[in-house]
Amino acid sequence: MSLDGFVAGPHQSVDNPLGIGGTRLHQWAFPLALWRAPQGLEGGEINESSAVMAAALANIGATLMGRNMFGGHPGPWDATAPWNGWWGSNPPFHHPVFVLTHHARGSLELQGGTTFTFVTGSLEAALEQAQRAANGKDVALAGGASAARQYLVAGLVDEMEINLVPTLLGGGERLFEGVGDDLHGLEWVRTVATPRVTHLKFARP
Which CATH number covers residue 48? Predict the structure, then answer.
């Protein structure tokens, strides 16, 4: 998240999924060995952010995401050339992923153990499917901002990590737009400050 509260820059598109300036929000993570390894890249840094990322990734059994994060075009899926995500044939998840959408589509099985299941039901129904697939492990809510807001307001978020980056985007998509003036049952539990990013953790007591 930027200092002015945006988790993506303005003018998001297929060519620029994070919006103008949006990649600046993730520059702290790109050099980390823990980020590089799932992409099939060797080497990388180990620093204060490494432990934060390792803890966040340690017990994930399934992931939830919104349609915009999975990407592609709005509206019904293209039957002749369906969008298969930003990540190529071997996405970095390596576990079941559930995509919230208004448009039905069959499951998409890719390399490395990643299967995308497209859910047209409620937030609760998607979460229940993800929990069953996770088999006792955590369900990660990957985003984007709209999906995260909806789950937060519904009181279905148990932990939230905010990676606050010292930059301004000036526009784009705000995570907390319209969620009110409270954290919907979450409380601050940890801060890890580094030169590139400040990691804030909130959890349900």
Answer: 3.40.430.10
